């Protein structure tokens, strides 16, 4: 299982595997079919969908963890045997999942909480309260702190994992996406409570815990990723474009039309971006070296989270 992209398809309760080494060969896997194969699975499924939203790779070989927004659960999935090993109920509407140092962290948007799960035992350890309507979460490994973007609270929560302390930083905008790099955190927000046609990118010092730069940019952006230097890529559900931005020079330097509603964006750390499109049901593979689309691949309905397996 090397060099495969896995996409969570929220709208049809499936995941799509795409093999980057075998001419983008793909396979759609129904999560319901996997559950039906599993005997004695301690999970109650009513008529509601599962809603796979985000996924992450942990430390255990061939295992990924899937956050299911509609079913309020996470799956432990063996991608070698292609089976669901276990299911754990977490908070309401889990939409972000991260891994760090033997633990799986799940951000529950409707419960205003983070669920912490022991990876090996696959047991819930505790739930930590955060602000109202959390939209994103990042873990800063050097200081072992969790940063949470609280959209409705106009704030960032900083959770000290070691000392079990929580500090809240108030903002003037609604944060929706965080990027961490070295001594700074980059915050994408909606401006003016989302009632204007502007977004905001703020640079937050992890040393002073203060915003050192704030830039309003025209357009409503749903996601962003920081690559090398001051270069960012942002997606817009509003106009179907992806934007390349030079934050150092405070300007958009390129606008790429992707059609539909491009949303989640993932960088492989080299030259490829992977972008899910929730209205076109495609995964776009984009080369940042020449700013060109390599391929659009049909996946499942309403694709969201992306993980790369090396």
From TrEMBL:
It comes from the Bacteria. Gene3D superfamilies: YVTN repeat-like/Quinoprotein amine dehydrogenase. SUPFAM superfamilies: C-terminal (heme d1) domain of cytochrome cd1-nitrite reductase. This is Uncharacterized protein.
């Amino acid at each position: 299982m090397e060099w495969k992209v896995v996409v969570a398809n929220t709208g049809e309760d499936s995941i799509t595997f795409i093999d980057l080494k075998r001419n983008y060969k793909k396979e759609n896997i129904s999560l319901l079919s996997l559950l039906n194969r599993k005997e004695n699975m301690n999970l109650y499924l009513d008529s509601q969908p599962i809603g796979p939203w985000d996924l992450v790779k942990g430390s255990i070989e061939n295992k990924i963890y899937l956050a299911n927004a509609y079913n309020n659960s996470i799956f432990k999935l063996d991608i070698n045997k292609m089976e669901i090993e276990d299911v754990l109920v977490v908070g309401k509407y889990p939409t972000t999942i991260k891994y760090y140092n033997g633990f799986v962290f799940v951000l529950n948007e409707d419960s205003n909480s983070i669920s912490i799960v022991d990876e090996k035992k696959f047991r819930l350890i505790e739930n930590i309260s955060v602000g109202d309507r959390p939209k994103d979460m990042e873990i800063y490994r050097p200081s072992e702190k969790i940063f949470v973007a609280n959209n409705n609270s106009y704030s960032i929560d900083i959770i000290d994992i070691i000392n079990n302390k929580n500090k809240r930083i108030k903002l003037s905008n609604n944060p929706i996406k965080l990027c961490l790099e070295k001594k700074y955190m980059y915050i994408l927000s909606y401006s003016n409570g989302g009632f204007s046609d502007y977004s905001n990118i703020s640079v937050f010092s992890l040393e002073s815990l203060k915003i050192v730069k704030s830039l309003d940019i025209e357009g409503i952006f749903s996601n962003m990723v920081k690559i090398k230097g001051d270069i960012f890529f942002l997606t817009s559900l509003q106009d179907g474009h992806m934007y390349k931005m030079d934050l150092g020079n405070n300007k958009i330097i390129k606008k790429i039309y992707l059609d539909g509603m491009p949303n989640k964006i993932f960088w492989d750390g080299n030259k490829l971006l992977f972008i899910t499109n929730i209205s076109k049901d495609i995964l776009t593979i984009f080369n940042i070296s020449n700013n060109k689309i390599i391929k659009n691949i049909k996946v499942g309905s309403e694709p969201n989270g992306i993980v790369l397996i090396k």
